[in-house]
Design a protein that fits this description.
Blueprint: E1 4-5, E2 17-20, E3 24-25, H1 31-35, E4 46-47, E5 50-52, E6 59-61, E7 63-64, H2 67-75, H3 86-103, E8 110-115, H4 121-126, E9 132-138, H5 145-150, E10 157-161, E11 173-179, H6 188-196, E12 199-210, H7 215-220, E13 233-234, H8 237-246, E14 249-256, E15 259-262, H9 263-274, H10 279-283, E16 288-291, E17 295-302
Parallel strand pairs: 3-4, 8-9, 8-11, 9-10, 11-12
Antiparallel strand pairs: 1-7, 2-5, 5-6, 6-13, 12-17, 14-17, 15-16
Length: 303
Amino acid sequence: MEWITRNCPICDTPPEVVEIRASIRADDLTFKDVKKLWMGFRKNSCFFDYYRCQECKVLFNKFYFSPEQLDILYSDMPDNSNKVNHAVLSKTQSGYLSFLLKKVNLVKKSKYLEIGPDVGLLTYHVSRTNLFDNITLVEPNKAVHQVLNNSIVPGIETFIYHNFDELATNNRFDLVSGVHVFDHLIDPISYIKKMAEFMGSGSYVLSITHDEGSLLRKILSRKWPPFCLQHPQLYNSKTIDVLFERAGLNKISIEKSTNWFPLKHIVAVAQNLIGLPNIFIRITPAINIPLKLGNMISIFQRK
């Protein structure tokens, strides 16, 4: 057995009921084989079976990669844009920040921590709000560190780390963000509790995650793209609240998030997943559209 075995990542209940079984079951393959399938959309996708916790109802993998295997997989990989134009993705990230600032009050000279910023699309907008004089980024993919540094307005004190353990213990952040981070963690409760140690009382967490309770997930069933090797668990609006509450944070808001996509990209993904004819891509207009397409934006506050 090359995989670790997990109980529920929120309440530690042993897995019993398989809810989603992959076309290609990673549970039955070797790490060498699964590594070749780590990235990309496919008609017959490969992932570990998802179990529904019978206590807290979160959806999670019983079998998954070890921390050492994940270090190998994440250490050198392309950015998360999936070849979508960065200007379109930046518009989505700007919307996340606008949503946050409508819900909470942040004062000038605040300190900001972003976990998994990728190429810094959200970081770019945060650094231009004139609210933060200190920006700290934790990004395991060292290949994008220079790009991250270039995304921040000159003059703001900036720190970029490879992992969480490198942060100084006396740091206290007013805002922590994680865009598609918390559904990637093997042990999310411990991680969020550790993260909270770097947050002052009343500080905020901005989280973007996939919503496994969405209509799109129900329509696509196991072909829903977030059912993939990168997600050891997936949340809905109730289970994401349970996760952060058990880690010691209070809910401020949980809503469906708006994402901007090139229409041609949506059709191309659909072609890979369900086999649409090529003519659909050729006749699709080159426009960008906003969709509430299976993601959640959540804000929590440290007690």
